[in-house]
């Protein structure tokens, strides 16, 4: 029986990957939820999933967490500044534990994209390639949830805010990306790289129009210079470094189509069309 480990399994994406594996017929007992805080994984434990402590910042926990694991999904850390060191620890532990295959959640066109967000992903890909471990890079595009999470504030202010201009974004849902990860972990003929984006790229103005349609009230898109966007986000309490990363991403969406994608890798992996903008908005408004 193949044992599959998922790091960050109590996070938004990781939990969905575990569910996607189970829905595809994987026995819960052959899934390892590798998590920083096992006490937060009680729900997975009751499903029959193995729960093991795996703290990116405590490398001594990692080799034991990966013992007996055949395939590992390394979900990228969400801690800018520490991410590369954390990923290095995971890759070294996976190699030491004899893991047979690693899938890594990267970012769209990580090797060539100009966005600041990609630097750690590119470096991680290079580390994994140099490790000798069989691997695949799941280069996820933008998540619809990056925008739909803003809906309470957008309803209050009447507009989305950004610097993306008329740039197009091939967004998909976390569930889409989670199902792609599960499919890659279970496939027998995995490719080295998947560029994953949604079927129907949209502009921020089109997103605002769809939200307007579903709410029955006017929602706009206010496009501002990147420097102004940073000040607004930082003034609202966002860490300045993260605000700068978001503004930089928007600039490259506008100037080079950094989050647009015309490929079909995501649809092909999950075996269905990706979630539409309309459905993603409708699902978010139900919450």
TrEMBL record:
Listed InterPro entries: NAD(P)-bd_dom, NAD(P)-bd_dom_sf, NmrA-type_oxidoreductase
Segments forming domain NAD(P)-binding: 8-160
Protein name: NAD(P)H dehydrogenase (Quinone)
Species this protein is from: Actinoplanes regularis
């Amino acid at each position: 029986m193949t044992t599959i480990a998922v790091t960050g399994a109590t996070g938004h994406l990781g939990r969905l990957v575990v569910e996607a594996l189970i829905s595809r017929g994987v026995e819960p007992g052959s899934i390892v939820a590798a998590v920083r805080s096992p006490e937060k994984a009680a729900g997975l434990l009751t499903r029959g999933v193995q729960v093991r402590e795996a703290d990116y910042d405590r490398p001594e926990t990692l080799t034991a967490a990966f013992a007996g694991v055949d395939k590992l999904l390394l979900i990228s850390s969400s801690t800018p500044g520490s991410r590369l060191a954390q990923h290095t620890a995971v890759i070294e532990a996976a190699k030491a534990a004899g893991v047979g295959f690693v899938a890594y959640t990267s970012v769209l066109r990580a090797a060539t994209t100009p966005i600041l967000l990609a630097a750690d992903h590119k470096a991680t890909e290079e580390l994994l390639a140099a490790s000798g471990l069989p691997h695949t890079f799941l280069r996820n595009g933008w998540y619809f949830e990056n925008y739909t999470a803003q809906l309470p504030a957008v309803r209050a202010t009447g507009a989305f805010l950004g610097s993306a201009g008329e740039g197009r974004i091939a967004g998909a849902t976390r569930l889409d990306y989670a199902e792609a990860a599960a499919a890659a972990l279970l496939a027998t003929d995995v490719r080295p790289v998947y560029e994953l984006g949604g079927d129907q790229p949209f502009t921020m103005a089109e997103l605002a129009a769809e939200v307007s349609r579903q709410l029955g009230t006017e929602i706009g898109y206010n496009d501002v210079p990147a420097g102004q966007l940073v000040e607004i986000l930082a003034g609202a309490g966002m860490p300045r470094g993260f605000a700068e990363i978001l503004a930089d991403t928007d600039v490259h969406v506008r100037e080079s189509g950094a989050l647009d994608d015309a490929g079909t890798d995501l649809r092909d992996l999950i075996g269905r069309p990706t979630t539409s903008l309309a459905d993603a908005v409708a699902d978010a408004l139900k919450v």
